[in-house]
Amino acid sequence: MSIKQKPIILTIAGSDSGGGAGIQADIKAISATGGYACSVITALTAQNTQGVTAVHPTPQAMIEAQLDAIFSDLSVTAVKVGMLGDVATIRTVAAALRKYKPTHLVVDPVMVTANGDMLLADDAVQCLREELLPLADVITPNLPEAAALLAAPLPKQMAEVESLFAGLAQLDCGAVLIKGGFLQQEARSPDWLLSGEQVRCFDTPRIMTPNTHGTGCTLSAALACYLGQGFTMEAAVEQAKHYIDQAILAGSRMRIGQGRGPVDHFFAL
Ligand SMILES: Nc1ncnc2c1ncn2[C@@H]1O[C@H](COP(=O)(O)OP(=O)(O)OP(=O)(O)O)[C@@H](O)[C@H]1O
Ligand SMILES: [Mg+2]
């Protein structure tokens, strides 16, 4: 009997009890895109499609114990980092990533949900920039996060997004994938990959649906999974963008919850 190899992809993020975002979205996206998913849960959130009602951070010792348990046994090829919440958690996770040195690291600098719920303490943005970004192959900010990382004004339309490129290119990280989902009045939903001097736009028509809960988590988890399978950064972004696009389209036909529903991660089944 031959052994079946799947890349092992770790997500370090918060739990979304509603199942649409966070750890739950990541595990679904990694599984659907060909990886074996494992997880370090940084916080529990009481959450549904309508919003977050409570957040309970995981004690630091328990985050460390999860990281050590995984890295001492599983050959993790790629890591996706999502919600970290506070400075102590950022430091704990960064220390483990420096110690265990996974081959690929995607950092989704989660700061605020699309419903406006804050997921990162104010003083943590600087810590994220200093401790975690230098370790990342790619970071995946949405537009409010890209603006917050630079302390710049929030672009309101497509033409203003370019004003962030020079500042983002200066950040101490591998590449930056800026996500355009926030541009809700535009007919398209482009993402831009800044890599060295190069800018490449991955453009898709905007899907008219309220069901976009967890799109960012899903995209960054799929990206980590494709990187873990050996695709180049550009090819991995292209595939991850294609995956989220199809998942949003399929999710637009589902009714789950009464608010912003999730995407359909397993549209291909
Ligand atoms: N309505 C839409 N139609 C097509 N693509 C979309 C739509 N909304 C978001 N996307 C795409 O989904 C991906 C995630 O981007 P988005 O800007 O929504 O991230 P985010 O704000 O971090 O999401 P989250 O709310 O999960 O944190 C990007 O590739 C973006 O272009
Ligand atoms: Mg996000």
CATH-derived topology: UDP-N-acetylmuramoyl-L-alanine:D-glutamate ligase
Average pLDDT over all residues = 95
The proportion of strand residues reads 15-25%
Order of helices and strands: EHEEHEHEHEHHHEEEHH
Radius of gyration: 17 Å
CATH class type: Alpha Beta
Extract low-pLDDT stretches. Answer: none
At the fourth CATH level, what is the homologous superfamily? Ribokinase
Which second-level CATH architecture applies? Answer: 3-Layer(aba) Sandwich
What do these coordinates show?
This protein is an alpha/beta fold and about 270 residues long. It has a single domain (about 10-250), classed as UDP-N-acetylmuramoyl-L-alanine:D-glutamate ligase (3-Layer(aba) Sandwich). It is built from nine helices and nine strands. A nine-stranded mixed beta sheet has the order 3-2-1-4-5-6-7-8-9. Helix 4 links the parallel strand 5 (about 105) and strand 6. It is globular and about 45 Å long. It starts with 7 loop residues before the first strand and ends in an 18-residue tail after the last helix. The mean pLDDT is about 95. The site of magnesium ion has 3 residues, from loops.
